[in-house]
Amino acid sequence: MKKHKYIILIIGTFLIVFSLILYFNIKKNSNKDFRTIKLHEETKKILESLDDKVYINIYLNGNLSPQCIKLQDSLTLLLNNFKSYTNKEIDWSLVETDEVEVNKNGQIYSPLKDSDIYPIFIKDQEKYFKIYPYATVHYKEKMSLPIILLPPSLSNSMGMRNDTINELSANNLKEAVNDLEYKIIESIYLLKQKKKKKIAFLQGNLELDRVYTWDIRNTLKKYYDIEFFDLNTDGIHLATNYTLKDANNQIKQLAQYEVVIIANPQEPYDNMEKLVIDQYIMNGGKILFLLDGTSAHMDNFTDGSLSFILNKNNLDLDTFLNNYGAQINYDLIQDQTCTKIPLRMPNKKHVLVDWQYNPLLISNQDH
Questions:
Q1: Bridge partners, 292 (sequence order)
Q2: Looking at the whole model, is its pTM more than 0.70?
């Protein structure tokens, strides 16, 4: 009997030691996983510059589909890794999303709707999962806009309010995980900004109408204050008698802008306008030239013709740009990666077809 007790004691001791070894090996490997997540240098710089704690509310919680559980794990793993690059506290919580409140009228509602956070439903085989694929970042009493944790390939195709989608594919999950670092650090960066820098869209030479620049302006306004600067009126005393004094005044006013955008002008620039632009650049300003070298446009087909003469779009900027080592090519670009245009078929129905003359620019995953 004593022998049996002795054997049981040895086995029990062995199991305890084995469990401890296994626990510390798992912990060691887990810590190793945190270190093997390679963050971008810009991410590290932003984390190192934090002067207050960061708190993240994760709404992807509760009864989740298998792929969403992996996405949640990837997010918490990333946030753990963030801690290695800052001496400020980074913490998060998994929010109970099904909690409801009663408003002053006695009606039951979800407080998440006040933050524009709505559920979607994921179908996995025969099961449906109600999820909130969002997170919010909190820094110095400021809160970010809700971060959509689903990949753009899914979130851009639905309204994100009570929609139903199929379970995330392996590619969907990979895309979502790859975007996590950028989405979280972007929100932290925006909350850190005390004052936004300014960007100006230059006007005065028949540039694109504002309706055609809405999309890019709407994207940029997260990071910059967007304004317009008209070379024909802003900073000028008398538009009919433009003087060097007016040019100097415009140069001073343009200096407040981090970047100036010239979007598809149709009228040539005179010498005084080029002087203003040149001095802005010489004083450290940055300009994004969005120029068409030719007059080709979809309107060329409105008369039913399938061909037209390709004319040079003369903006009188060739010599100006050559001084900076740039050149306008008077060519048409075609690319298989392009947008679609509606085409009327013989049955009078419209279908969307690839239009190779509208190249689609796609960024890579390295932000």
A1: none
A2: no
